[in-house]
């Protein structure tokens, strides 16, 4: 069990590695991290490609696209997309992006890479469970992708899979085998997520190196740690919802079904409630958006401090706000359900808790902005994405005040306004966090190779302009009253005037997607031919940059470094203010002991 | 106009890429070690780009308002809708002030503190007073918003029988709506999907005395100034009764009855005279005329010209025809309403036929 913690203190020996143990069934956190990243990116390509297909449909509903036929085959005969397939695309896009890209791809990649490296551990607490976690995720991805090929089509009841629509194949074809596979895939995904999260929690608590107290942890680790805790608290609830839905579908129970007349007959189900499912789903579903955004916040905090050459402003407030957000995130799920027939009093309670979340979020935003103030900003691509993150987090977060207010939610609930809101605040923001992380830690993943910065800049600016180009106008079609998940908005006249806006959105979406190819090329090319930079290319203080550039099992060739200070001693001056603490070097890494000419602060 | 925008966007991208490229060319003589780390020149260019970006944000915001401000929902057609719009306005003003300010600070700092070798960053780790200030300000502002919001919410969601509302059932099924009026006794007869048979499409219990005078219709008519209590039912899957012009929405859940009440305060006729509505209808008809020209050229059937109607839309994903599950709502004077309802057949009459 604790072999990795203890057994590797003597570092003369290394396991003999075969191709299989090194690249496939690897128990090394660095390799598992890369496996997560590449699987996540692959799923991301599919998820984004799907969004382009349905964006084309929304912008030019009357046009026949051969590309539909190529990708959708019999579901798009003569280039006309079937409405059921439109719903399937929307559903799988949501599922893939939320769970497979932004949960597993983001948290899985960076928790695995950074937790051992930044806390000074040889590996995760259990390398084996870590491996199992990845392979369950892989299995889950495969099943989810397989569901795209079943005869009646994949799940198409929306990513929230509310029953009865998701329970009855009579209601929509995708609720047949496609939904079964969706549920199985998500069940396995939950298992994967739990194994991963438990591992992260245990590792952070037990395997910190000497001197690495909790208040000396980089904010990344705090974010991953708290994210893992929310995951452990809420993912099992999704599993229970999934299991009950499987029983309703296959074994004739009535957890979520009651009084249904469909396709000319009355179903026997009696006494269940779809509202119960909504509670269970959102008990995970809301914390889930924080599972997505917290790791991004952690990455951004770290990258921003490093590139601003300044300590993150209000380190303790940042930790406190992570904890506050995490706590509140578990008691706000009802704001997805103001108008579901839930008791209006509950609506009041959830409005209260929801708007409270704005407080720690505001603190974080102000602290990030203050971190930039009087900095010496190194505009690396990772830094640009971090600034972009704060920008979209603010823009998207502010509209949350509208949606979180039950009275206002009545009229914008389930409209495109919601789609615009959550894409900015958790979709785009979390993706920016992911990109920032990849640009920043690419050298740690690929043995010192660095991504090309020029391509990075091009990637950022196309994405930044494109993202606002897509989602600002989308608020307007939402406020015009257009419901989400509409196959076309020109079937009746009232929304005819929104078609122009849909065209603009789609054009921006296409451009943004093409921009991602720049990243993809950069990623693959640099993986093999990237220029090797110095050991600590960003002049960062954290421990991962003291580890060997070449990947070895156990991370440090010698003893694990001991930590003497917090991770944010950037531009700290010596006592007489004549130079930096270490002359000529504007940062003091965590493993450097307190210097004679240095004032000891509370960290 | 759209084509113009698209071209503008493409040009903007082109300029951005070209500018970046130019800078890269100048930079090619950079030192080999850490050549992928931002140089002072990069910092400078990217700093300027950041400043440009905040103006892009303001521009796109202004452009959206200028270009598409006219697609937004017109004035609320219900009494509580005016309250919601007021709350929305207050919230929006707040959002815009905060958003514009914070975006400015973020990008301006990114510009003005762009790094160089000669600069030094300020070691500034915390300031409890500052942090207290920007904790307490959101606390106060949000407290006001929460209280304001909750009063509005409670006001909308609580209704008692003293108001003597007219009871109407909204019945949702894949993929259409039916409305059932409670009739003279203003009490809906019991109903259950198990009783659906033949013309009794809503499964009304025909033995229930309250059900006899109920009237099932395919177009919702409402008298102005009269509070209406909607009781929602669904036959198959979740639907959502969304009446955007009345700022009203409630899910229809199989197995339970949900409810929502409001008082319409503008008739359809008066709404058609509203300035914003006229502008919107004119705009839509321009679009439809343009389409018709194409359709005529192809020899296909032309689209009818549009006149404003209030709508009941389905706003919860419910299957393949979700996008076309709607019903017209007609708000009229009490006399017109009474004349219309008198013409509709009661359930008892329908079943006798």
Features:
heterodimer, A: 603 residues, Cytochrome C Oxidase, Chain A, two-stranded antiparallel ribbon, 16 helices, 61% helix, globular, disordered N terminus, B: 353 residues, alpha+beta, Immunoglobulin-like, five-stranded mixed sheet, elongated
Q: What do these coordinates show?
A:
The complex is a heterodimer of chains A (603) and B (353). With 603 residues, chain A is mainly α. Chain A has helices at 3-6, 19-24, 29-59, 66-72, 83-119, 127-146, 177-206, 219-250, 274-308, 315-329, 344-372, 381-404, 406-412, 416-445, 453-479, 499-529, and strands spanning 261-262, 265-266, 449-450, 531-532. Chain A starts with a helix and ends in a 71-residue tail after the last strand. Chain A has one domain (29-546): Cytochrome C Oxidase, Chain A. The relative contact order of chain A is 0.10. In chain A, a hairpin with a 2-residue loop joins β1 and β2. The radius of gyration of chain A is 24 Å and the shape is globular. Chain A is built from 16 helices and 4 strands. Chain B is an alpha+beta fold and 353 residues long. Among the domains of chain B are: 43-83 and 103-115, no CATH class; 164-270 and 308-352, Cupredoxins -  blue copper proteins (Immunoglobulin-like, Sandwich). Chain B has a 5-stranded mixed sheet, with no helix packed on it. Chain B has a 5-stranded mixed sheet with strand order 4-10-9-6-7, with helices on one face. In chain B, α2 (40-68) runs antiparallel to α3 and α3 runs antiparallel to α4. The two termini of chain B are 56 Å apart. Chains A and B meet through α5, β1, α9, α10 and α11 of A and α1, α2, α3, α4 and β7 of B.
